[in-house]
Amino acid sequence: MAIRPPILKAGDTIGIVTLGSPLDANIINARISTLRSMGFNVILGKYVYSYTGYLAGSDEERASDLMHMFLDTRVKAIIPTRGGVGVAGILPYLDFNLINRNPKIITGYSDVTVLLNALYQFSNLITFHSLLLIDFSNSTVPYNFNQFFAATSTIISPRRLENPPGIPLISRVMGNVTAPIVGGNLTSLVGTLGTPYEIDTKDKILFLEDVHEPINTIYRYINHLKLAGKFRDCVGILMGECTECSPQYGRTYEDLINDVIVPLGKPLMTNLRTGHGIYKMAIPIGAVVNLDTFNNTLTIMEPTVSL
């Protein structure tokens, strides 16, 4: 069983880090103001505002910020400012054993996907495919905040994961499986293949989503995962949105799912609203979930934080 990080409560301290691409300081400051208005204290990493081309400081600097947050006893949750590129570069500089002994909530999506899965695989820590700092804005829909706090600030179990009202989950291949869930951003996960941080899907439910990629490129990435045995090894598949993914050669994302994913024969649910779209379902990486496509339900079977 994976480690459940301590629960996030009102008045707790949140650590802010930039682990990939830089973010404008004015945006960072505005989002921090939102967190403070919610009643949280905020601590900033040393390199939060760094700007070195497409990265926010060196790999070592960004990794040191993250490690300091895990070691700071005041910090109860860690929120990266954004994803972008470069998060995988910090992985060789992390002490996964030390993180294992100092478990904390960490959340994000996009390029942060590689970190979330690595922390589960190497630190045995439940992590959260959920909000980044950039999402703590007045324009963010209430569903997203409700999802984030349901995952990080409650111990309700079992707990059903549901799309916003009027947006159904869609079961494509029938089955009923219970297993830990892994995955996230497809592009980022493909980038781990052949590295020490390659995603492990053995006996797991695999969740995928992506953004801004043409469908022929999505096919290439899906096929890469297939050739690497990731679909063979998993016990079920969840497909999220492919946000602003343009059709190519007359084929859409839905066509790709029907042509490539359905024939794999694994229990399959699609249309999850999470990741880069407007709505962001909070998915706890490493937690045990039940995927029941006979009844079209997705249920977290255990608390994802501890008291």
Topology, element by element:
Layout (H helix, E strand, L loop, with lengths): L12 E5 L7 H13 L3 E4 L14 H13 L3 E6 L15 H6 L3 E4 L4 H11 L3 E3 L12 H11 L6 E2 L9 E4 L2 E10 H5 L14 E7 L3 H13 L2 H4 L2 E8 L9 H9 L6 E5 L10 E3 L2 E5 L4 E4 L7
Parallel strand pairs: 1-2, 1-3, 3-4, 4-5, 8-9, 9-10, 10-11
Antiparallel strand pairs: 5-12, 6-14, 7-11, 8-13, 13-14
GO biological process, one term: proteolysis
EC number: 3.4.16.-
Organism: Clostridium colicanis DSM 13634
Q: What features would you describe in this structure?
A:
Helix content is 28%, strand content 23%. The protein is built from 9 helices and 14 strands. It folds into 2 domains: 11-153, 3-Layer(aba) Sandwich (Rossmann fold); 159-300, 3-Layer(bba) Sandwich (Glucose Oxidase, domain 1), CATH 3.50.30.60. The chain is of the alpha/beta class. It has an 8-stranded mixed beta sheet. Strands 2-1-3-4-5-12 form a 6-stranded mixed beta sheet, with helices on both faces.
Essential attributes:
Peptidase_S66_N; Putative murein peptide carboxypeptidase; six-stranded mixed β-sheet; 2 domains; 28% helix; Rossmann fold; Glucose Oxidase, domain 1; 9 helices; 307 residues; hydrolase; alpha/beta
Mean model confidence by pLDDT: 98
* CATH level 4 superfamily of the largest domain: Murein tetrapeptidase LD-carboxypeptidase, N-terminal domain
How many strands appear in the DSSP assignment? 14
Label the overall shape.
globular
Q: Uncertain segments of ≥5 residues (pLDDT<50)?
A: none
Number of helices: 9
Q: What percentage of amino acids are in beta strands?
A: 15-25%
